[in-house]
Recover the amino acids of this structure.
């Protein structure tokens, strides 16, 4: 999947031999890359060049303290206020406010649209991102007209935890364990044979749900407040210490012992 973890610097011209090709899918450039017509692809940040031949995509893997919205990103947004046609939402401390149109929800009309108060957490997708415009969000798929898991997150036993942008991207990978080296959530859920969770969770694993935002935020929900705290700690410590799979197993076992 990776181009031998090639390290690139801003302004370098990427060798065309490293650019993936696909018969059906157009080339997709992710964060850290810019297309300069007619055919040059230039990094805008320093980091590791990553390619995915199956999806015909490429991007630069880097850790930044500032989230830059990209079309298609899944994000956790907080409603700050209600404008006449949209909600204004915060994505991160150093990112411009995003707009979430009132009708950008499944089945929404002027009468049935969700009534969101300031402070409401929303799981959304970046529908429009441009360097000269504020980002626009949506909670409905333009292709299917369905929410597909997006929308307001119900208030209750849940909490948002901050992680690095690179770690959030790894969590969002379709195969986060194989490609991203992150298996801590599977271990806590009892899906790793080397980690016994039953004694702590009263079953095959801890019962919890998560929503991961590309903007470096992870929402963890559970009926047990202890579980919420444990999962959040596991994520943040894995990120902070850059733990591999074996280190994640040791961390999970330690946290489960403390939970008991």
């Amino acid at each position: 999947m990776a181009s031998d973890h090639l390290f690139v610097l801003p302004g370098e011209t990427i060798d065309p031999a490293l650019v993936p090709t696909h018969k059906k899918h157009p080339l997709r450039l992710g964060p850290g890359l810019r297309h300069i017509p007619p055919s040059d692809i230039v990094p805008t940040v320093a980091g590791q060049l990553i390619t995915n031949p199956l999806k015909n995509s490429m991007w630069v893997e880097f850790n930044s303290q500032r989230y830059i919205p990209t079309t298609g990103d899944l994000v956790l947004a907080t409603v700050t206020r209600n404008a006449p046609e949209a909600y204004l939402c915060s994505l991160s401390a150093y990112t411009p406010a995003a707009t979430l149109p009132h009708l950008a929800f499944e089945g929404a009309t002027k009468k049935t649209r969700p009534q969101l108060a300031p402070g409401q957490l929303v799981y959304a997708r970046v529908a429009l991102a441009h360097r000269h415009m504020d980002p626009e969000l949506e909670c409905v798929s333009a292709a299917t007209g369905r929410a597909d898991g997006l929308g307001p997150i119900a208030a209750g036993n849940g909490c948002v935890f901050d992680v690095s942008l690179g770690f959030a991207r790894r969590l969002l990978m379709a195969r986060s364990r194989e490609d991203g080296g992150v298996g801590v959530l599977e271990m806590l859920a009892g899906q790793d044979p080397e980690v016994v969770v039953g004694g702590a969770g009263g079953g095959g694993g801890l019962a919890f749900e998560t929503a991961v935002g590309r903007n470096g935020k992870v929402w963890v929900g559970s009926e047990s407040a202890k579980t919420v705290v444990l999962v959040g700690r596991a994520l943040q410590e894995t990120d902070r210490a850059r733990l591999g799979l074996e280190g994640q197993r040791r961390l999970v076992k330690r946290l489960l012992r403390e939970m008991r």
